Amino acid sequence: MAETIFDKIINKEIPADIVYEDDMALAFKDINPQAPTHLLIIPKTQIATINDVSTDNAHLVGHLYVVAAKIAKEQGFADDGYRVVMNCNEHGGQTVYHIHLHLLAGKPLGWPPYTETLKV
Ligand code: AMP
């Protein structure tokens, strides 16, 4: 599987503003924040896209949510609320092919994200 920029962050070959780390996951600030708090939570094992999630690695994906909830409590926005998003492939807006949860918080977030009129 092709290495991504997130492998370099995991291996500390390039800097990142890391806010959480354990054996399975790493969380760091997004370089181009879309909310007052915008973190990326990634598994240390590369899984390219959601399409590559299986029963063999589902525990790693579940762990990303455990980390999200832990950070939300620690940083004090668990009760106000937040959003976690995982993009998949081109239509989903994925640009880095190492799955990651976007954790967005710090203000009320708009919904739905797709506002053009749907043609059915
Ligand atoms: P996605 O478009 O869902 O694949 O999200 C990739 C995210 O990675 C984007 O929000 C980028 O701003 C972010 N990103 C890319 N390179 C870095 C980096 N070196 N450090 C932190 N965030 C990054």
What would you note in describing this structure?
The protein is α+β, with helices and mostly antiparallel strands and 120 residues long. The protein contains three helices and five strands, in the order αβββαβαβ. It has helices at residues 5-10, 58-75, 89-92; strands at residues 18-21, 25-29, 37-43, 82-85, 101-105. A five-stranded antiparallel β-sheet has the order 1-2-3-5-4, with helices on one face. Strand 2 (25-29) and strand 3 form a beta hairpin. The protein starts with a helix and ends in a 15-residue tail after the last strand. The structure holds adenosine monophosphate. Adenosine monophosphate is lined by residues 5, 16, 30-32, 40, 87, 93-96.
Structure described in brief:
With 120 residues, the chain is of the alpha+beta class. 23% of the residues lie in helices and 21% in strands.
Main traits of this protein?
5-stranded antiparallel β-sheet, 23% helix, alpha+beta, binds adenosine monophosphate, 120 residues, HIT family, subunit A
Name of the CATH class = Alpha Beta
Mean model confidence by pLDDT: 96
CATH superfamily: HIT-like
Q: How many strands appear in the DSSP assignment?
A: 5
> What amount of the residues lies in strands?
15-25%
Tally of alpha and pi helices = 3
Q: Which strand order spans the largest sheet, edge to edge or round the barrel?
A: 1-2-3-5-4
Low-confidence stretches: none
